[in-house]
Amino acid sequence: MEKVQNNKQQEEFDFSVQRPTKSEKFIALVSYLPTLLVPIDFLILNNLIYTLPQLYSLNDWVILAIFITWIALPYIIWIVIWFVIRKRSTFINEVGKAAFNFGFSFLFWLTMIILSIIAFYLITIKAYPSDLILLSILAIGLFTFIVLPFFLLIIFGTTIAGIVMTLKGKFFHVPLSFKYFKYKK
Fold first, then answer.
1. Most exposed: 134, 135, 169, 185, by fewest CB within 10 Å?
2. What is the crossing angle of helices 133-142 and 90-127, to 10°?
3. DSSP 113-152
4. Which pLDDT does position 183 carry in this prediction?
5. Mean pLDDT across the chain, nearest whole number?
6. Are 15 and 80 in contact (CB under 8 A)?
7. Which band of pLDDT confidence, cut at 50, 70 and 90, is reported for residue 22?
């Protein structure tokens, strides 16, 4: 029994020592694209909502559904692709796990920021009389236009760093990401 475990460890060790090929690096690189698209999606959707008058006639829930679908669809496509190709290479599997953990942690933190903006808005509206609503809208605007873009810029930079590390053939472990899937260090 112990000999079988040693053989498995040896096979895994030998397989992980191999340098990833260019095609493996490219496939692993694709795993970061959904996270790279999210800040761009925010900019596009934000501009669409303000520039297209047809969107004003839609229900808020319809706009929210379009927004969530637009952000979730690249992740769903990547998960399906990753489940199909993860057995091909240890490198693809490990980078896919790291990118998956990073992407979903990013979505978690982004959701927390958006919920905090909404909570701040609701608390401010209830706490202050109507003459201070302008102050609350100003505070929410500053928070929305400073904190959220700063967060998206950090995510964009971290994604670019992950892409560069993947092209070098190394794993990129992002701080503050939850480990939904365990991966090698």
1. 185
2. 170
3. HHHHHHHHHHHHHHHS-GGGHHHHHHHHHHIIIIIHHHHH
4. 64
5. 75
6. no
7. confident
The residues near 70 (Cβ < 8 Å, ≥ 6 apart) are 41, 45
Greatest CA separation for the chain = 77
Residues 92-119 as b or e (16 or more Cβ within 10 Å = b):
bbbbbbbbbbbbbbbbebbeebeeeeee
Nearest to 155 by CA among 84, 104, 93: 104
The DSSP secondary structure of 16-38, one letter per residue, reads HHSPPPHHHHHHHHHTTHHHHHH
- Domains of the chain, by residue range, sit at 22-167
- Nearest one of 99, 90, 100 to 172, comparing CA atoms: 99
pLDDT tens column, 38-96? 777 777 776 666 666 666 666 767 767 777 777 788 888 888 888 888 888 888 888 88
71 touches 38 (CB < 8 A): yes
